[in-house]
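Exercise 7.
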Amino acid sequence: MMQEPNHTDPAAQAMSFAPLAIRLLKGVVYEEDARYWNDLVKVHELPLRRYFVQIGLDLIVNREEGFAYLRQAPQEETEASPLPRLMTRRSLTVDQSILCVLLREHLEDYTVNESASREPILTLRDMRDMVELFFRERNTQQRFLKDVKKTVEDVKKQGFLEELNSGDANLNDDEIRYRVKRILKAFIGPDELLQLAQQIANL
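Solution. The predicted structure, written as tokens, is:
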């Protein structure tokens, strides 16, 4: 007679959420990824929190926006043996900060209708237009516009943009489409948005 698995056993429990834990370590889990999302919010959230806190990570679950991610727990400056940094710090250049603020404001203003996702889609041309409007009558406009494609690529590497039609040889650069990922809201909240906007306004 086959023995039923013992889900109270810590090792067995860890194995049951291992695929989800690995997925979270690789990056953001979105509600659209129904398999992982449902396992997270309906079954494994509490045991995962307990598991990750042992290695200095906080599990952040935003049900309203539909995403979850890991954040390295802050450590006291006086701590004798701080844990090595596992999660990469997101440090933005001035150009990246400007684009992220513009994208964050666009994300905030984006109105979801019944047929649309929660994440707006912009072309590179759209982002150029946003930048041109922001930099109107500023001496630094041309320098920024010259490098806007590189800045978009850098922001994409940060996980805030997703390129949708890469490799299409029939498109010119300005027609390339990007999805603005709502995880940007987690890293630039209303307070950070205001602070960054004020800093950029003084450039």
